[in-house]
Amino acid sequence: MDTISWWGMLGLGAFHGINPGMGWLFAVALGMQEKRRGAVIGALFPMALGHAISIAVVVFVIALAQRQLPEGVLRIACAVVLFGFGMYKFFRARHPKWVGMRVNFKDLTIWSFLMASAHGAGLMLAPLLLRMPAEASAHAAHTHHATASVTDSTVMLLSAVGVHTLSFFVVTGIVAVIVYEVVGLALLRKAWFNLDMLWSIALMIAGIVTLFWKH
């Protein structure tokens, strides 16, 4: 991936971190319940792990699809899925609600995975992932350098997931601590802003970008 794509991974990670539905609001609520900042910070690690797993699933599915489908077909398919999911979220925004406030590491990881998946967090990376040089991997399959090429590709994919997750973790942590220490949930309820509509629009824009943003 080029420099633009790496910065895009960082930017989308930050955007996901700002979204209260993906973790920081729940982390603040846990901190308020236990009356300690450590609970807020402790919740960030399983949330980041769950988010990373959700992102990784989409990243590797798209990477595999790049080797099996023509670029044009895959680009159109990703664009349709993104735009359609954005429309769905715009008119019918629902979040998974299965976990209570007494949770452990596994519960928070699964919750974060479900929230990221329900929001289509991984799908947002499609325009960036499609800029990966899939043709290089395909060519390598016919040479004695195939193993090294696959390894390099895997390392790049894992790096992309890591960069995105690190950005998500840092921004989520900063927002959660600021809200816990300064703002508080009481003020947050009065001055609440809903990012679901913005997120839905962003998904639709990502679909359009996927269709037209080529190498």
How would you describe the overall organization of this protein?
- This protein is 78% helix and 0% strand.
- Helix 4 runs antiparallel to helix 9.
- It is globular, with a radius of gyration of 18 Å.
- With 215 residues, the chain is mostly helical.
- The longest helix is centred in the last third of the chain and has 45 residues.
Structural key phrases:
215 residues; mainly alpha; 9 helices; 78% helix; 0% strand
Can you give me a brief rundown of this structure?
The chain has helices spanning 3-18, 24-34, 37-68, 71-91, 105-118, 126-129, 134-140, 146-190, 196-212. Helix 2 (24-34) packs antiparallel against helix 3 and helix 7 (134-140) packs antiparallel against helix 8 (146-190).
By secondary-structure content and strand pairing, the structural class works out as mainly alpha
What percent of the residues sit in helical stretches (DSSP H or I)? over 70%
Radius of gyration: 18 Å
Please report which band the strand proportion falls in: under 5%, 5-15%, 15-25%, 25-35%, 35-45% or over 45%. under 5%
* Span between termini: 10 Å
Low-confidence stretches: 135-144
* Average pLDDT taken over every residue: 78
Query: How many H/I helices?
Result: 9
Number of strands: 0
The biggest sheet, with number of strands, parallel, antiparallel or mixed sense and barrel status, is: none
- The SSE string, one letter per element, is HHHHHHHHH
Silhouette:
globular
